[in-house]
Amino acid sequence: MHTMADPIERGCLTAPDSVSVLCGEERFTYAETWSRCRRLAGHLGGLGLGKGDRVVVVAANCHRYVEAYQAIPAGGFVIVPLNTRSSEAELHFASADSGARVLLTDMPARPYEQLFEHVIRMPGGYEEAIAAASEAELGAPAGVEEGDLAGIFYTSGTTGKAKGVMLTHRNLIANAWTALTWARLGPADRWLLMAPMFHAAGTCAVLAASWVGATQVVLPTFDSDRALDLIETEQVTATLAVPTMLIGMIEAQLRQKRDVASLRLLSHGAAPIGTEVLRRAHKVFPDSELLHLYGTTETAPIASAMPAEQELLFEPRARSCGQPAVGVQLKVIGPAGRPLPPFAVGEVAIRGANVMAGYWQRPEETASVLQDGWYRTGDLGYLDDRAYLFLVDRLKDMIVTGGENVYSVEVEEALYLHDRVLEACVFGIPDPRWGEAVQAVVVTRGPVTAEELKVHCRKSLASFKVPKQIVVQEKPLPRSASGKILKRELREPYWEGCATRIGGQ
Predict the structure, then answer these.
(1) 219 pLDDT exceeds 70?
(2) What domains can be seen in the chain, in order of their start residue?
């Protein structure tokens, strides 16, 4: 049995004097981090919190967040990380929905804070609290078990109101074991933590790094140039980037070259990415292994991995998300829930110790996606004859035009092949003749017309897949904090006053 206390405790036992985390000018050893985690848990217990009580965190990445992520669950409490860019209404909803009693934050005071019994401000209030607290027991000695709830992680809500994903210690420890296989972390590694920690991508390697005594280099708020500077100055060896980060780092490195030879692993995930973007990444970061990760918040998060992706960039499997992660099962099912043969498109389902316990206080929605131990993702894809997973679309985003199914990912891939396309988003809009028409919004890195892009697409796509309309713009596409393009925001204006769209809402 393992709990979230075990990784940081082992780091303290095996490498007490090694740097566990650095953020700006602040550096803490494993022995110091272990003590600070125990005192944070002690302070929360002193406030009257008991096992299972929830603690909301609204803060930028920092070493204190790394401590809280480990100490809150290890102390028997439940962490609820919320998006720092959420609206007042969104913060109020998630805070009230979770029933949390305590808030940790580095943000200015806002009305939703009235929901909490205690508000601990970082850095000052946090430091005062742990300085005065006694060290509490963590993990099993504190009565924490692997089946206990560790965190409630609210989904980004790209298709509607956010849901609280319940992840147990078992779920997050299973992901840590998986991370140790795909990241191959060791004591000499220096992991750049740059994806926001309120998202599963930001924390997917925190436990794994602690377990082996690696150093975590924390970037509070992502900036492409700052990330590259840290890779160079701190000799970062591995990181994970969401697509918008990777695109930004490519462009920044082309503008001003840094020495990034230390970066042995450049993993990416959390949202779809074009193959052409990955080819550019390999040219800009030639010494780095590219690693494609796929997963969901509901799977804690990693479900599949494709190491050494740079070796496949000109092969069909370049579009794949890799094979099932160690300890994870994948299958593709049809409308009746039965497994489909290789190469048949259906809904991706996932089973393993990493799969969530369910949605917080939403039994009906839990039952709709958890069936016989399998999580139904809502992603459309297929498995080839070697269990490589290919995603083709979200089930709700598939475009049905004139009775033909069009998968937006395929059209986006075609657009990305144009050397002046920086970002692309494809979705369906109402059409009186065809039911839906293919629409694209494109962000460019140089002058190009919509007609030129249509001509370009006709070279590789059937005529019914070529976008009927292409909006060319310079401003970035709207994205969630996890890097997912908010397709709903782009699509909704076209559907105002229309019936529910064929492929979903």
Answers:
(1) yes
(2) 6-14+30-304 (3.40.50.12780), 396-495 (3.30.300.30)
